[in-house]
């Protein structure tokens, strides 16, 4: 979402005559868009500000002025603190106020240049239409929902991003239509809690994400749809059916579970058990058998015992994730879990993280290797590093490289996977998508053609 927000900030500033510079040395205005989710991300902001300060001093020696903005969730949470600790900063702007950047930049004093309010009016309505082609060109982010009302006990999001709010179908269709006009073929719908989206439909009724996906799938030019990040409790039938019925909805789902122990899940206020999560996954696999699953994990949540951690490892073995993100629990100011007395020692967290990551990496590599020999469609996003090479994504969000003529850039290509390493796939170009008969991607493959899920692979190995 920070990538999306940064693009929108660029839109606002482009209307003021600003252009992006390839190097920070050329920039009259530097914006750090920041993340508050873990302590490590926050530390990065302050060390980066040190570098920006040196840069500003160097430019000043050449008689050039540099203005510095801190945006995003660190700005939201620690605006006053940033102004105090880092005099290099001119403007602080929270994630709900960046449409006001031009005014804030015009402010005469630093005191007037802090905006971390949650304005009642819809930020999106204030933003200019998206004018620059998004970074990846054919694949664009589209924020449909912001904020969170779930209050997991470890998480700062409900405080930094505020209460849940959903954009209307009309606003989203307008933005999507504009982007397909610019050549976008894939949308990744974004939200802190994307499947809790419940926007107003053109019929005045409240729509769910499953229905929105149907509407977007009908839009001319839309070839692929993805969405992130979802909460297990909001995986309703309509959404699961969309995975079964819509070839545009890609067979990849990021559905964070965080932990495998019911005791820890309850302490986290996730409001589901590990077995409920397993059953949700069964339903999703029932609808789309080849779906690749991904999750986030936190190890070392306060009070996590060896037995609790073992339950997480069991869940990993049971599900077989195609990819995952995993973190050591980080105490976040103002969150309930940060106040708990039974914090876990750093070394225990580090050991558990290493063990978990080894298992996740094993499954990811196995999933990637299972792609060898398969014929898949690839959305070609950019040129590869080698001359003549193209790069894009498989339906399962894996990076794929292959040699192909230049005119396939921005199009869908059919590719045979000839080498599947743990990290990415190397392919042989067969032709533009649609020109190669007898393979099914996008459309759910018949059972015999599915790649083995890591779960099946584990069963075979056993
Ligand atoms: N809304 C999503 C997650 C958003 S935050 C969900 O409910 O799943 C992204 C990820 O950061 C989380 O899934 C979690 O794994 C991680 N995270 C959030 N707070 C954290 C903390 N205090 N310490 C460590 N990891 C954290
Ligand atoms: Fe944070 Fe996600 Fe929980 Fe909301 S649902 S509080 S964003 S982890």
UniProtKB/TrEMBL annotation:
Gene3D superfamilies with a match to the protein in the record: Methylthiotransferase, N-terminal domain (3.40.50.12160), tm_1862 like domain (3.80.30.20)
Alphabetical list of InterPro entries matching this protein: Elp3/MiaA/NifB-like_rSAM, Methylthiotransferase, Methylthiotransferase_CS, Methylthiotransferase_N, Methylthiotransferase_N_sf, MiaB_methiolase, rSAM, rSAM_horseshoe
Protein name (Swiss-Prot/TrEMBL): tRNA-2-methylthio-N(6)-dimethylallyladenosine synthase
Cofactor(s) in the UniProt record: [4Fe-4S] cluster
Subunit structure as annotated in this protein's UniProt entry: Monomer.
Domain MTTase N-terminal: start-end pairs: 1-110
Keyword Protease: no
Start and end residues of each Radical SAM core domain: 134-366
Manner of cofactor binding, per the entry note: Binds 2 [4Fe-4S] clusters. One cluster is coordinated with 3 cysteines and an exchangeable S-adenosyl-L-methionine.
Enzyme class label: transferase
Organism: Camelimonas lactis
């Amino acid at each position: 979402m920070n990538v999306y927000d940064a693009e929108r900030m660029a839109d606002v500033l482009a209307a003021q005559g600003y252009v992006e510079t390839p190097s920070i040395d050329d920039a009259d205005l530097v914006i750090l868009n920041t993340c508050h989710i873990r302590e490590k991300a926050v530390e990065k902001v302050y060390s980066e500000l040190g570098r920006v300060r040196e840069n500003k001093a160097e430019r000043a020696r050449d008689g050039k002025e540099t203005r510095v903005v801190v945006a995003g969730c660190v700005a939201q949470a620690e605006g006053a603190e940033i102004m105090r600790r880092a005099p290099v900063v001119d403007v602080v702007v929270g994630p709900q106020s960046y449409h006001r950047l031009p005014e804030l930049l015009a402010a005469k004093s630093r005191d007037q240049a802090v905006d971390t309010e949650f304005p009642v009016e819809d930020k999106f309505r204030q933003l200019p239409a998206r004018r620059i082609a998004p970074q990846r060109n054919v694949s664009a982010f589209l924020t449909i929902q912001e904020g969170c009302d779930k209050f997991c006990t470890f998480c700062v999001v409900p405080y930094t991003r505020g209460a849940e709010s959903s954009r209307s179908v009309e606003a989203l269709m307008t933005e999507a239509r504009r982007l397909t006009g610019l050549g976008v073929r894939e949308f990744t719908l974004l939200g802190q809690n994307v499947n809790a989206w419940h926007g107003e439909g053109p019929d005045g009724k409240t729509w769910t994400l499953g229905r929105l996906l149907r509407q977007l799938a009908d839009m001319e030019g839309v070839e692929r749809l993805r969405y992130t990040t979802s909460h297990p409790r909001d995986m309703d039938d309509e959404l699961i059916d969309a995975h079964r019925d819509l070839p545009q909805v890609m067979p990849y789902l990021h559905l964070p579970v965080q932990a495998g122990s019911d005791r820890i899940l309850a302490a986290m206020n996730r409001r589901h058990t590990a077995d409920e999560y397993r059953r949700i996954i069964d339903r999703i696999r029932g609808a789309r058998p080849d779906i690749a699953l991904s999750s986030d994990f936190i190890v070392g949540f306060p009070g996590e015992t060896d037995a609790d951690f073992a339950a997480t490892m069991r869940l990993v073995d049971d599900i077989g994730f195609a990819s995952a993100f995993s973190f050591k629990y980080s105490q976040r100011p103002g969150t309930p879990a940060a106040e708990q007395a039974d914090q876990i020692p750093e070394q225990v967290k580090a050991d558990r993280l290493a063990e978990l990551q080894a298992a996740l990496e094993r499954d990811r590599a196995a999933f990637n290797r299972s792609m060898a020999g398969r014929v898949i469609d690839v959305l070609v996003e950019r040129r590869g590093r080698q001359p003549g090479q193209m790069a894009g994504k498989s339906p399962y969000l894996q990076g794929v490289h292959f040699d192909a003529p230049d005119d396939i850039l921005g199009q869908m290509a059919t590719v045979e996977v000839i080498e599947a390493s743990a990290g990415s796939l190397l392919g042989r170009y067969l032709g533009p998508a649609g020109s190669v008969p007898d393979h099914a991607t996008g459309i759910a493959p018949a059972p015999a053609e599915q790649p083995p899920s890591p779960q099946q692979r584990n069963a075979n190995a056993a």
